[in-house]
Amino acid sequence: MKTPSLVKASLLLGTLLALSSAAAAEVKIYPYSGAHVLAGQKFDLRVEVSGVAAGAEASVMLDGKPVAGLIKTNSAADTVEYTLRGVSLIAGSHTVTVTGAATGQATMIAEAPATVAQAKKVILFIGDGMGWNTVRAAELVAHGYNPDNGMPLGRLEMETGLSGLATVTNSSYDSFLTDSANTASSIATGQKVLVNALSVYPDNTKDSLDNPRIETIAEILKRSKNMGIGLVSTAFGTDATPAAFAAHTRLRGDYSAVADQYFKGSAKPDVLLFGGSNDFISQTVPGSRRKDATNWIDGSQKMGFTFVSSRAELMKANTTKLFGLFNLSNFNSYLDRVQFKDPSVLGDFKDQPYLWDMTQKAVETLDKNPNGFFLMVEGGMIDKFEHPLDWQRGVWDVLEMDKAVAWAKDYQKTHPDTLVLVTADHAHSISTYAGYDHTKGPGNRDAVLVYQDGKFPTYSDKKDVNGIPMVTPTRGLAVGFAGVPDYCETFTARPIYKDPTISDGSGGYAPNPDICKEEGAYFRTGNLPRNTNQGVHSADPVPLFSFGPGAQNFVGMMDQTDIFFAIAKAMGVDATKDAGK
Amino acid sequence: MKPALFALWAALLLSAAQAQSSLKFSEMYSKVTVRGIEFSPKVQGLSGKSVSMVGFMAPPLKPKLDFFVLTKAPMSSCPFCSTVADWPPDIVLVIMPDGKLLDPSTGALKVTGRLEYGIKKDDQTGFVSLMRLYADKVENQ
């Protein structure tokens, strides 16, 4: 039998527990408070109330009126969720209010529709990982200086004849640092998104494909104007950057689902040109990465697509719907395709198109749509070689993309209703910190030339078949990264790519002994966590170069989410309209 | 840093007497296209036979290994650790004999064992392999 004091104590404890469980109740509302959307832009409204008693209910009001049609679920014993898919708002400020089991509020702004279309076509180039310093290294390689007077000999195509220039900063919903999924999603949707997520808000379920979706610029342009949509990349086709414009998932690694959404989703791209066929072929075929028997090479053709798999086939194509896959995985780097050309690296993929070929053919194909088009062209391998500190392969892929930009600028001159944008999703911690005298051999710190000793790089002395400098100059650049694992440095491009690190067998990484054995290679102590095998994205800003009508919307300092609204404004988007197709 | 590797046990007397075939990574496939991979006639001819391959252990998941991935060059990406790891197509799954475990290793290895090719999914890990070596012997190079 309890004593009165114990009874009091247990009553008090019970009260405290009740209070603490009430205090633990939490409300999450998506779109999050502070979100900006376009009036008419579709999104999934979701309210999650956690830390509540079983059977608890909440009511959800939008601008003071109950929201009809909400689907109620209980993902866990102490949660209740309310979801309504395909919501849109009229222009103005809106408030979602939650009452009942717990209370919460989120205010979001719906931007008014554009009234005038400044451009009818947009070509958006995204250099993956192409921050300001990456562009600068590419410029130094491409043009250099006149040694007689110290004057620069030119700039990249993306840097000249500009109509607008902006510097873009980025961040994630959950971090000031970013990955390629959430950054492309911010450009595509105007929202802050979780790292590794593609054009969705967070949710509390394990299923990565049921997260609340937010309509992308490609989907809006297809729905409201029935425009042509094109996605082009030198990375594998389901990689984050192209995927963010036409797919929705919490996990960018849902490659098969991304591939399916390209053909079944609402963006309905008319042009898809990628590497990475492994997500588009049946699991019964060696080399497939799928977990089912879907074959989109055949499936796309049944949907009216022309399928091409080599440069020759691409250049011959004359169609309104074009699907091209040019490698089992990523494209080989520009240097591997053009300058090193090692047969063991290229294997059977000897006729991969250039990014400028794909840009040209995508535009020719999309141009057949009288309503205009949205084309995203990704230099997808820049980032993939910056990660393993192979700056030469990364920078030469910038030079390849720059020739694609040159083609787009020429097209813009004869098609003045076209807006050309060149930007990046995020940066790497890259810097050109000195010159390097290659006559003194690789890995020689005394060949790193600072201040006046650096003189001028001589990359332009020798050029390849495309007029792009050879990677083997007498005087080159010393380029490094701020954030590195332990690795061995040689300052020199290697004809066959090597990972900078290998597993140490116990969860960490060690410098790749194959590199450390190379002539002159010397050990550099890293500053990243020991379980990090390569360089990482940085918080550094990225450029946004613009050409043509609507470029005035891309000026000054921009947050990455602003790009979405600036494109919508330039294209005269009224997302409240439905083209009915 | 580098745990010693142990040769597991003497191969069967019968197979010890057989001439050992060696297979290079560059000899695995006769054709790689966007529609998939074709195994080389050499691989097809060696199916079920004892074969030696030299390569590197991909980053392992566990401190003691009953299987590992053999790659042409040392790699830093792990097939199980990341959904975004970009795998080369020319990798071989090495399966250790029952009850025999291996320590992780970073140096070059010579693996001798029975070759099997064709798609096979490991139910435990979900890892899909195209080619497998059922190891009799794993030696440091």
UniProtKB/TrEMBL annotation, chain A:
<feature type="binding site">
    <location>
        <position position="537"/>
    </location>
    <ligand>
        <name>Zn(2+)</name>
    </ligand>
</feature>
<feature type="binding site">
    <location>
        <position position="378"/>
    </location>
    <ligand>
        <name>Mg(2+)</name>
    </ligand>
</feature>
<dbReference type="InterPro" id="IPR001952">
    <property type="entry name" value="Alkaline_phosphatase"/>
</dbReference>
<feature type="binding site">
    <location>
        <position position="128"/>
    </location>
    <ligand>
        <name>Mg(2+)</name>
    </ligand>
</feature>
<keyword id="KW-0862">Zinc</keyword>
<comment type="similarity">
    <text>Belongs to the alkaline phosphatase family.</text>
</comment>
<feature type="binding site">
    <location>
        <position position="383"/>
    </location>
    <ligand>
        <name>Zn(2+)</name>
    </ligand>
</feature>
<feature type="binding site">
    <location>
        <position position="239"/>
    </location>
    <ligand>
        <name>Mg(2+)</name>
    </ligand>
</feature>
<dbReference type="Pfam" id="PF00245">
    <property type="entry name" value="Alk_phosphatase"/>
</dbReference>
<feature type="active site" description="Phosphoserine intermediate">
    <location>
        <position position="180"/>
    </location>
</feature>
<keyword id="KW-0732">Signal</keyword>
<feature type="binding site">
    <location>
        <position position="426"/>
    </location>
    <ligand>
        <name>Zn(2+)</name>
    </ligand>
</feature>
<dbReference type="GO" id="GO:0004035">
    <property type="term" value="F:alkaline phosphatase activity"/>
</dbReference>
<dbReference type="InterPro" id="IPR017850">
    <property type="entry name" value="Alkaline_phosphatase_core_sf"/>
</dbReference>
<feature type="binding site">
    <location>
        <position position="241"/>
    </location>
    <ligand>
        <name>Mg(2+)</name>
    </ligand>
</feature>
<feature type="binding site">
    <location>
        <position position="425"/>
    </location>
    <ligand>
        <name>Zn(2+)</name>
    </ligand>
</feature>
<keyword id="KW-0460">Magnesium</keyword>
<feature type="binding site">
    <location>
        <position position="387"/>
    </location>
    <ligand>
        <name>Zn(2+)</name>
    </ligand>
</feature>
<feature type="binding site">
    <location>
        <position position="128"/>
    </location>
    <ligand>
        <name>Zn(2+)</name>
    </ligand>
</feature>
<feature type="signal peptide">
    <location>
        <begin position="1"/>
        <end position="24"/>
    </location>
</feature>
<protein>
    <submittedName>
        <fullName>Alkaline phosphatase</fullName>
    </submittedName>
</protein>
<keyword id="KW-0479">Metal-binding</keyword>
From TrEMBL, chain B:
<protein>
    <recommendedName>
        <fullName>DUF3299 domain-containing protein</fullName>
    </recommendedName>
</protein>
<feature type="signal peptide">
    <location>
        <begin position="1"/>
        <end position="19"/>
    </location>
</feature>
<keyword id="KW-0732">Signal</keyword>
